[in-house]
Amino acid sequence: MKKHNFSAGPCILPAEVFQQASEAVLDFNNSGLSILEISHRSKDFVAVIEEARNLALELLQLDNNKYTALFLHGGASMQFLMTPHNLLEKKAAYLNTGTWASKAIKEAKLFGEVIEVASSEDKNFNYIPKNFEIPTGIDYFHCTSNNTIYGTQLKSFPKSNAPLVCDMSSDIFSRDIDYSQFDLIYAGAQKNIGPAGTTLVIINKAILGKVSRKIPSILDYKSHIEKESMFNTPSVFAIYTSLLNLRWLKKQGGVSALAKINKHKAELLYAELDRNPLFTPYANKEDRSLMNITFNLANPELSHTFDALWQQAGINALNGHRSLGGYRASIYNALTVESVQLLTEVMQELENKA
Amino acid sequence: MKKHNFSAGPCILPAEVFQQASEAVLDFNNSGLSILEISHRSKDFVAVIEEARNLALELLQLDNNKYTALFLHGGASMQFLMTPHNLLEKKAAYLNTGTWASKAIKEAKLFGEVIEVASSEDKNFNYIPKNFEIPTGIDYFHCTSNNTIYGTQLKSFPKSNAPLVCDMSSDIFSRDIDYSQFDLIYAGAQKNIGPAGTTLVIINKAILGKVSRKIPSILDYKSHIEKESMFNTPSVFAIYTSLLNLRWLKKQGGVSALAKINKHKAELLYAELDRNPLFTPYANKEDRSLMNITFNLANPELSHTFDALWQQAGINALNGHRSLGGYRASIYNALTVESVQLLTEVMQELENKA
Ligand SMILES: Cc1ncc(COP(=O)(O)O)c(C=O)c1O
Ligand SMILES: Cc1ncc(COP(=O)(O)O)c(C=O)c1O
Ligand SMILES: [Mg+2]
Ligand SMILES: [Mg+2]
Ligand SMILES: [Mg+2]
Ligand SMILES: [Mg+2]
What we know:
The structure is a homodimer. Chain A is α/β, with parallel strands linked by helices.
């Protein structure tokens, strides 16, 4: 039985993407070769990576001349390091909204002064700090648009003269915002982009070249831009599958079409959580994520019954992050409204039983 | 028509590995989930990465207590950086046998003194320097076991008191040598291990912890060892497919069984190159690689005819590396004797025509 997959990442992708990726492992483009055995320098793969890079910018409505899109190795965590390595000369400001933001801060401290403009650690990151000030004279400001673990999301982004850097690992391509307010966006592919194994990095080229340190070539955004995202052997299959997924997204009507469906899915689920006395949402109401919906059972003793119910219903991976516990429903682009409806029905079933 | 794939990497893998990987993209382990959508923390994937790490050591006959195997991001090129970052305190010695060795040297120089013990650049890397001396007081000695571009291969490795570090990207698991003479082995997966997108790193844990610099966590071998190769989201599909390939290798009888076949394939091809007056092998005879066989046409004007012949025969990717030109037949583990025979027949056909 096909599962209803609420995994936080790696996560569900459209069924047609799985189908096409599976076929390409046997025979890519009727070439008589698997996508796994072709040279990354082959005409066919160069076309794939070019289309993927262009399509990423197109879907975010970003100017192809100003921005460049790269598919890099290392996961989002590698960007915690590459960002300060390339951009931090003296000091940078970071907003601390959870585990991932904290890890980004930790790496940045190896390169210069880090000003933590605000933190929601006092309430275990169940909200997004507001009304903080961005200091002047910083090299950049860094934030995490969506906090995968806690289920909080920035609804708007601060204005400042400094370059704006954003870890969008868990909500890129999911909502209709002005992506051109950012100067550097990065995202591990394994949520709304594709499978694990590649990382999308989008850079406003004008912000580069301003630090005085020597950057090892593989960590230098400029090397990757110069080599058109082929500084070394790229993650061929992960990039191809990401392209399949971006094509699917375009066919659905692009980011704004998905944004509407995502909003609808989240509203369905939050409405049930608010209505149903057995469940308590974790995140502060106005900061609720539309991608990762975190909640607890009002009475933890019901967990065995609830777990049995959702597992019997064919739901996968509803447990919260191991650092937080509770539950988390990750409802990325490819998850259908039907899957969300099923989850709300299971919640009602628990209510009827309890 | 299925091709005879002589690509230098990414490259051919066994047909049954493509089949199993393709099936897992639709449904992994009868779970109702694609291998692309499962959490890397799921029981099923933790079992995959553990088996892959253990099997890598087992196939190389390395002691599980002394060595640890990791599947990391970034390709072999990331190891050009991680090696000196983790090991180079004062000075290291490198053998320069080509492009990849030179790139490794370049990154190492950011961290300390680099002594190039010998270089074959004088003859465009068509041989392996011998009788060089390894200086005392170095932090490690680094070499490239097989030079993918030039088709040369180290037949033995120098003894020294310093840790021995080896880039084995293009010949790991292909020959019967004493792997325990090395303290650190790394290899991009995309040759004899699996698809592009993951890198195998094998470390004698005793050599770590000796540099005084602060290492960013994602570049620190110790973080990866501590987190059992899951410091961050690993390249799930590439690691799973690598496991399928390592299982295949074990089923064939392991490294020594493949080593025999590889030797036979290389002998077939070199014999034809030596015999056939139309072809000139590139590498110095005693340094010939058993994995990448480089050669030129004695008369370059025959290239159109030759290219048409091998392409018609269903042979893929016989062109030399773009930096060297000529031809290169990469005959990795999964390439069959039949494919090599076919190539020798095409060479004879050219001779009969010319
Ligand atoms: C917001 C965010 N940033 C960073 C990461 C780390 O990503 P990776 O595992 O690709 O390094 C994650 C992982 O889930 C994430 O959700
Ligand atoms: C011997 C050797 N070392 C290093 C590399 C670079 O590997 P990657 O592209 O994974 O960084 C290659 C690539 O072919 C290679 O053959
Ligand atoms: Mg978080
Ligand atoms: Mg409630
Ligand atoms: Mg080389
Ligand atoms: Mg000859």
